[in-house]
């Protein structure tokens, strides 16, 4: 049986590509790590893959704001053939394939206009800016999936623990109309949650002060998914800082990390299609 193929891009300050590729390997897919220059030169085609992944990192040092330079490169870079990378990416999505962005990758998806894209014109509708705390936040958080979610990445997930590590993770909407449509269409697919499992704006469980307590967004098709927490950093139970207590409480607990569920979900979904 042919395996699902995932392309994990790297270069220009992206630094979580190895963990993301490992997640796909553990979940049963093939994963190739490719420098973006190879894509722009068209020595590697995104169309040979089922999934395109933008990992976390500090692209171009985040010198002009998180992922702003990277997103502009994606939007305006001419490839070897003369076509724009963003047009190639739109073709990839029109073929019903899947895109995932984590942390810096999520910031790039937002600033490229791929999510939430409620107006359908690929214009930027939200941004990710400085945390309310005014500093870099590095901790584990609990997130709750939207009960009416439409993206297969989060299928059957209710609550999930994941680590965050970002200085600009506060999501804000362009205007009230965009915010209302995101809520109405259930595109706010992942929220920061408190100990009671309910979405919250309380610091520090909400590490950045995002509107709608948003930790992740998808587009209306569910094919584009981005989130600030790092699922690729929770592939084993032993990644979790509280794994000892978790094993004592539940001796039958899986040794797989919860983050791996997201990768297994999308691979299973593609295989079933």
Q: Your description of this structure?
A:
The model has no long low-confidence stretch (mean pLDDT 96). Helix 3 packs across helix 5 (104-112). The chain has a single domain (5-272), classed as Rossmann fold. A nine-stranded mixed β-sheet has the order 2-1-3-4-11-10-9-6-7, sandwiched between helices. It has a two-stranded antiparallel sheet with strand order 5-8. It is an alpha/beta fold and 273 residues long. It is globular and about 55 Å long. The protein has eight helices and eleven strands.
Using brief descriptors, characterize the structure shown.
8 helices; Rossmann fold; two-stranded antiparallel ribbon; nine-stranded mixed sheet; 273 residues; alpha/beta
Q: Mind sketching the topology for me?
A:
Elements: E1 5-10, H1 17-27, E2 30-35, H2 36-40, E3 51-54, H3 68-76, H4 85-94, E4 98-102, H5 104-112, E5 126-129, E6 137-145, E7 159-166, E8 170-173, H6 176-184, E9 190-193, E10 214-218, E11 224-227, H7 243-249, H8 259-272
Parallel strand pairs: 1-2, 1-3, 3-4, 4-11
Antiparallel strand pairs: 5-8, 6-7, 6-9, 9-10, 10-11
Helix pairs in contact: 1-8, 3-5
